[in-house]
Structure formats: structure tokens, C-alpha cells
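Lab notebook, bench 4. The sequencing result for the construct came back, and we need a structural model before the next group meeting so we can plan mutations. Quick request posted to the team channel:

Model the 3D structure of this chain.
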Amino acid sequence: MNRSALVAVAAGALQGVFEWLPISSEGNITVFLTALGSSPEAAVQFSLFLHAGTALSATVYYRDELGDVLAALPDWRPGEAFADDGNRATLSFLGVATLASGIVGIAAYATLETVVSALTGGAFVALVGVLLVLTGVLQRVADDFESGGRASSVLPAAFEFGGRESPDLTDAVLVGALQGLAILPGVSRSGTTASALLFRGHDGPSSFRLSFLLSIPAALGAGVLVLLDTGVPGVAPVEAVLALVTAAVIGYLTIDALMRVVERVPFWGVCVGLGALAILGGAALLA
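Done. Here's the predicted structure in C-alpha cell form:
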């Protein structure tokens, strides 16, 4: 196996693991590929492309739940989109949030291309580090909010932790927009969207469930966006397929265990630590 194939397999394996952790799989894989000599543009495109592999993993893993949600489609009515506490509200959430993700994500992708083309490798790595640190800080605040379980008198009722049973239109637009911004490397998609749902009053399990269901159309969309923009990014087609298969297989094998790990490990600290290392590494490359 040649070097480029080994790098493709390694990147696919990292995507299969990192996707389920709130540490920005895109950001960390982009730093990994940049460190191995890829240009920032190629690294970003390839890391986004790999999301299609873990989208397949999530689809297979959540197949029963997705089937239940899609079964509500014949009974869906615009005026009652968020009226129940079950699959119809979840279906409405996924539809509206995916639309919001697409609108914001396409704009963010265009901005990202402009910024990346203007940065050197070191400056780009440092920028990813800054976004990782900010993501970690957001997760820390959300963790404090959840652990306190507080319903503060200074917060509106919609922010009372644990008081929400189903998503509403505001949840869908807010979370979808934030997921669109997560196309920026260093912004954790799951960390950001789950944190937003916690602040909106959903409990931890519900927040992660909605976040990962929403990841499926978003990840597929990211892969398709890259293909339409650049074609297979930076590698031979065979190596691209190898990376996607690796991401899908590793992702499916690890999702259950890593979801349990996320419940026990304060990943905000991991995010901050990785971000700090990226900032130092980027500064060293600029020196």
C-alpha cells in the first residue's frame, strides 16, 4: 500500500472515531492532513468529503429510529408540524433544521474557501485551534448548565433545563443554523448542536439523539457539496473510496462505545487541549 493510500485509510479511521466525539472531526483531521503536507484547501475538502462515510454509519445505526420517524410522513401536516411530542415533531425538526443547515452551510463554505486560500499552513492551523478552544468553552458552559439543572429566575421558561419534551420551530432554526456553521474546521458539530439543545431546555440524551439524527443529512450534504465543487478531493478515486469505506466501517463499530464515553468524559477539556496544541503548532510553523 502506497503512502497516499495509507494516509487515506488513516484519515478515514480518524473520521470514524472523531465523528462521535464533540471535538470537531473536521478540525482535527484537517490539522492531521496539513501536518502531513496537504494544502489547507485540500485538507478541508477531504475532511468534509469523509463525512459521507460516517453518515452511512449513522444511518445504519439509527435505522430503526429513522424508520419510525419517516413513518410519520404520511400524517404530517404543516399546521401541526410541531404539535405532538413524538415522531412527527422529530420529523419536522429534522426537515427545518436541515434546510437551515443547507442555507448557512453553503454561505459558510464559500467564506471558508476564501479564508483558507488567503492563509498559510501555520496561520490556518492556528485558526482551527482557536475555533476548537471556543467550542470547548461553549461545551463547558453547557455542561455547567446541565449539571446545575437550573431554572434561573433571570432566564425565560424555554431555557429551564429538562423542561422540554419535543423540539419546536425555534429549536430547528437555531440548531440547523449552528450546524451549518460547523462546516468551519474546529467547530464541533455535535458539541455545538447538543449544547444549543441543552440551553433550549432539552435533557442530555434527547439533545444527543436529535443532534446525531440531524447529522445524517448534514454529513451527506457536506460530501456532496465537496464533490460538486471540486470532484474527488486531492486523492485518486480508489483511495477516496477506501477512505470512505474505512470511515463507514470504523464509525459503525465505534459509535455505540463512544456515545457512552461522551456521557462520562468532559470533552470540553479535550477540545481546549487540542485547540491549544494546534495554536502552538501553527505558531511554530509561522516562526
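The mean pLDDT is 86.
Will bring this to the meeting.
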